[in-house]
């Protein structure tokens, strides 16, 4: 009998030791929220995650990409708890398909665009861009329509834009170029990126001289170039909406994140991260 007890005790200690190696013996791992986040908002959600994780005692698992591709992955059944799109169209489609928690579709921010210019051409006096270099150095400056037309319409510089079929910021940029009647001159010089993060990578690699990218992306990673914010009335509104997916097993935590993003302190932080406040009231989530 003593031998059996000793054997059982040793076996229990061995199991506990193995559990310790994988995160603790008898300790529950913190709950995890799986987020599908448009790449334009990734820098902002990374900046906000620590505050939310410490408040909720949970972990955020972030998958970033173009809203269009993330939407397709959700429709294909990939397990996410929430979808933070950079538009409203795809959350609406998911809602109509019955794949969301009722009343969970909410605007969490409004996007802005920026014109990013490589330092090489912005300091090249022969290119004509040096005239605006002083303004470009001030990241809180905004472009006028005339400046935007002069910068984009002059020369043969390549312009990086996210794929308008997949990325809402790319769609807004192309629509703006068409509105300003610049599209015929620029169409052959556009370099398409998969999403906002990819656009920034292409610019840093020198595959484009200028870029029309999300302002938040420019603020987060724009040190290798100069950039100016484009006034929001230049382009179609970018209403960024999030939705809680019906398949989630962490509905309460998902609701907390929705409320966290819409809270007044976070909305003020978002303005410093390159986004406009959502300016919407939340009717609550059932």
What does this protein look like?
The structure is a single chain. The protein is an alpha/beta fold. It folds into 2 domains: 32-110 and 239-272, Periplasmic binding protein-like II (D-Maltodextrin-Binding Protein, domain 2), CATH 3.40.190.10; 113-234, D-Maltodextrin-Binding Protein, domain 2 (3-Layer(aba) Sandwich). 43% of the residues lie in helices and 19% in strands. The chain has helices spanning 2-21, 42-56, 67-75, 89-96, 119-122, 133-136, 145-153, 168-179, 183-186, 196-204, 215-221, 251-262, 264-272; strands at 32-38, 59-65, 82-84, 106-110, 113-118, 159-162, 190-193, 210-214, 225-230, 239-244. The chain has a 5-stranded mixed beta sheet with strand order 2-1-3-10-4. It has a 5-stranded mixed beta sheet with strand order 7-6-8-5-9. Helix 2 links the parallel strand 1 and strand 2. The radius of gyration is 23 Å and the shape is elongated. The protein starts with a helix and ends in a 14-residue tail after the last helix. Mean pLDDT is 85; it is low at 281-286. Keywords: Metal-binding, Molybdenum, Signal. Belongs to the bacterial solute-binding protein ModA family. It comes from Microbulbifer hydrolyticus.
